[in-house]
Prior knowledge:
By secondary structure, the protein is mainly α. It has nine helices and two strands. The structure holds zinc ion (ZN).
Amino acid sequence: MPITNESILSPAMPGVAEVDEYVCPNCGTPARGASVCTACGTDLDTYKELPRRSEFQEGGVEAVRAAYVEELRQGAGAPGGVLVRWGALFLDNLLCIGVPLLGVMLLALVGVDAVTVAVLAILALWLFYAPLMLAFADGQTLGKKAMNVRVETRDGKRIGLARAFGRETFKAILSAFPLGLLVDALVAGTNDERRSIHDRVFGTRVVTTQ
Ligand SMILES: [Zn+2]
């Protein structure tokens, strides 16, 4: 059967009219893989999954946006809260500093001077523990495991060793400044994904695991 102009223009033609593509949750403009909406500037990377065109039309602008933000907040994969993350950091510090200190005190009781060893142990743990755990233990230090959060890249993938080293070193430097971690937490509070300064610099986010 010859193809006529009429059949080409028919809305029933597969692949043309039936594409239900992903759109910006804010304004409905097709996303087409962009990380920022070309029409309204919405940060599309914020969303785990964008609404399809049909979903967008059903819900309306604010309803769809609210639904997706709510989805981000609930259940596994929701952004980790500041207090939970501080709890994890406290537990990790307890491990990296407290355990060597406890060791040196116990050894001192039996007359062994292990201060040098303890200082070296603390330095080594402080440098390598968190990056190695993040890179090879599914984005979790023991503190994060206890608090049910993990670090992942912004597209939900495993964080590599180089990125983990950068992130943790940056965070350590930041925490050395007075109020450094507080400013970091305030920045995390400004966005739906709860991304802090060190998350923004290294393309990561902290999500809950349950
Ligand atoms: Zn838009």
